[in-house]
Specification:
Rossmann fold; 18% strand; 7-stranded mixed β-sheet; alpha/beta; 8 helices; binds adenosine-5'-triphosphate
Length: 226
Amino acid sequence: MKIGLFGGTFNPIHRCHLTIARQVRDRLALDSILFIPTGTPPHKQLKSLAPAHHRLAMVREAIAEEPTFSATDLEVHRASPSYSIDTVRALQQKYGQGVELFFLIGLDAFLDIPTWKQAPDLLRTCHFVVIGRPGSQFIRLATLTLLPHISDESLRALDAGTVDRVDVPIEATAHLILLALAPCPVSASDVRSRLRRGLNLGDVLPVQVESYIMRFGLYKEAADLA
Ligand code: ATP
């Protein structure tokens, strides 16, 4: 069994989250993807963060018709801030030996990994799948000293789109997989800003998520939910 773990604030979940999850599932032949909305995230400012139960409910609405996707409240119900190392270890315990875990993360978020709790251990604990994101360059990974050497040539090739995947072994049981998918330009901050200003959202949100936001009056003003 191969399971993808997709953590995030999902504030709110948007079209690109779903596109990424589907593409990674198909490219890496994963059996399923588990969405893990954060409770109190250590790396994000709390301003304009919708309550965790709403973010989890929106994820559930968005994935309701995808049989290979599910969501967990593992981090939502923790009283203290959640760290990825603790979440991954808890899931490894739960699933046992027969399951390989793949941690999905956008390149922008992965560039912060040196600040994460026990980052070197985390990188050895499961596979990491780093997905390119508009505005972030793979070549910046060359500055991360906690990674094994990755040639500038292969990082530049990912940025140029001349290769779409680079595999970097960390340990026998843990690989770093760099994936350049078709760029998907949506960000949750942009979605929130559009909602606050009452601008047209186009198709950036799954319809169920847009109606959930309207139903509960979320993201009207940053100050409402701070
Ligand atoms: P915000 O704009 O509030 O920072 P976000 O759009 O980055 O939010 P998160 O919930 O923080 O959404 O993202 C969860 C994960 O998905 C992160 O690893 C992030 O890098 C990745 N991700 C989100 N949007 C994209 C995108 N358009 N392309 C690639 N990765 C993305």
